[in-house]
Design goal:
- It contains 13 helices and 19 strands.
- With 435 residues, the chain is of the alpha+beta class.
- It folds into two domains: 279 residues, Aminopeptidase, CATH 3.40.630; 146 residues, 2-Layer Sandwich (Alpha-Beta Plaits), CATH 3.30.70.
- Strands 1-2-6-3-7-18 form a six-stranded mixed sheet.
- A hairpin with a 5-residue loop joins strand 8 and strand 9.
- Helix 1 packs across helix 13.
Length: 435
């Protein structure tokens, strides 16, 4: 191995990973994760770890390894990252999305924040510690999984359903969309640890009417009926409801800023954490977003039915209540069908492992704090939690105050600040001593 630091190696590995096009189109049309998985497996075997490559279908490849800890009598820790990414349109990007370019202090490309940077941090830290003979505090299961961007059907979900023995002994896990910093107006940084996720329901709403010629009056137009319902749903504001995680977040932020939270005007407090206010604001209530409409096959023909699909996200503990309120909101003149559903999760905070996170962050960013938050989207934590594993988002990044972290996810010109990526390496290394 070259004498480069773990931080340098993390940047190099991240660039390499981003040059593998692992676009996930929701089926097997994409290139798959095989080449990236072989690269990851090679980095792990080079330093003496045994790995297993798992392929539910050809090319859809996950890498698994178990890293023996100093105290194998303790329960294990799962550390997971996904190697697939959402598709990108190169013509819209400043730099090629699979070029791994470094410019303006950032590493640019698809997967920069979602989530090849954390895979690179994991690999760099594990390799450095293996070369130095420094085991983690306890056994660590390393998972570089496929298909997260399509619900984990060929990745985490498949592993939990078909290979649960791989996670034997693991009681906690860390993964994506947590451990990143937000800078308050007073200059203090808070690192947000994801301890909860909304659940997912995809509804198909269908209206039926009378088919006919487009030139005629028609008081039973299925498209018009559907349009009224989608407008009603799209404009609806579900009530603000604070889960235990969000209550802790709001209380901590209120104390930091000496400002009260008002449910009828949450923006007054959330604006203090710009640009993270959108992701936190979405954690305060259930959400129903119309995303797809399908009707008709010819311009001069009024169809007999129309349908729309909606991406709905519900708060932990509010699933049944949300379904009832959504169906009532749609009304009696349409049918509601659930065609995809996944659980919400909420994990204890504080806990011994979050104390280890806080200590690791504080060592490298003195004076910083760690607080929990609820992610309005979803990760592979949903699947691993079904094994009784307490899941946390902790993939450390020290971000510039004006960096729009939420906008980078699935966005054009996705990028991660190089210094933020480098910062997370010693934090993660320190965490493995404390975990």
């Amino acid at each position: 191995m070259s004498p480069e630091s773990a931080e340098d190696e993390a940047v190099s590995i991240c660039r390499d990973l981003m040059r593998f096009d692992t676009s996930n189109y929701g089926d097997d049309r994409g290139p798959g994760e095989r080449l990236a998985a072989e690269y990851v497996a090679g980095l792990l075997t080079e330093v003496g770890l045994d790995v297993e490559l798992i392929e539910p279908r050809p090319g859809r490849t996950t890498v698994m390894a178990r890293w023996t800890g100093a105290d194998p009598e303790r329960s294990g820790l799962l550390v997971h990252a996904h190697t697939d990414v959402v598709p990108a349109e190169p013509a819209l990007w400043r730099y090629h999305p699979f070029g791994g370019e470094i410019a303006d202090g950032c590493l640019w490309g698809r997967g920069a924040v979602d989530m090849k940077y954390f895979a690179a941090q994991m690999l760099a830290v594990v390799r450095a510690r293996m070369r130095a003979g420094r085991p983690p505090a306890r056994d660590v299961v390393l998972a570089f999984v496929a298909d997260e961007e399509n619900g984990g059907r060929l990745g985490a979900r498949w592993l939990v359903d078909n290979r649960p023995e791989l996670f034997e002994g693991c009681t906690e896990a860390i993964g994506e969309v947590g451990g990143f910093s937000a800078t308050l107006p007073n200059g203090r940084r808070l690192y947000l640890v994801e301890t909860a996720e909304k659940g997912v329901i995809w509804f198909r709403v269908t209206t039926k009417g009378v088919a006919g010629h487009g030139s005629m009056l028609n008081s039973s137009n299925a498209i018009a009926q559907l349009g009224e319902i989608m407008h009603r749903v799209g404009e609806h504001k579900f009530p603000i409801q604070l889960t235990p995680t969000t209550r802790q977040f709001i209380d901590a932020l209120s104390a930091e800023l000496d400002e009260q939270f008002h449910p009828d005007d949450p923006d007054a407090l959330l604006k203090a954490i710009t640009p993270l206010e959108r992701i936190v604001g979405a954690s305060l209530q259930n959400i129903a977003s119309p995303t797809l409409i399908s009707a008709g096959n010819k311009t001069n023909v009024i169809p007999s039915q129309a349908s729309a699909e909606l991406d709905c996200r519900f708060l932990p503990g509010h699933e049944d209540e949300f379904i009832a309120s959504f169906v009532a909101l749609v009304g009696p003149n349409a049918t509601c069908e659930i065609f995809y559903r996944d659980i919400a999760v909420e994990t204890q905070f504080p806990a011994p492992i979050t104390h280890a996170m806080a200590a690791s962050v504080a060592r490298h960013d003195p004076g910083a704090g760690v607080i929990p938050y609820l992610l309005p989207a979803g990760t592979d934590a949903k699947h691993f939690s079904r094994l009784g594993i307490a899941c946390y988002g902790f993939a450390p990044l020290k971000l510039p105050a004006d960096f729009d972290f939420p906008a980078a996810f699935h966005g054009v010109d996705e990028r991660v600040p190089v210094d933020a990526l480098r910062f997370g390496v010693p934090v993660l290394d320190d965490f493995f001593d404390r975990c």
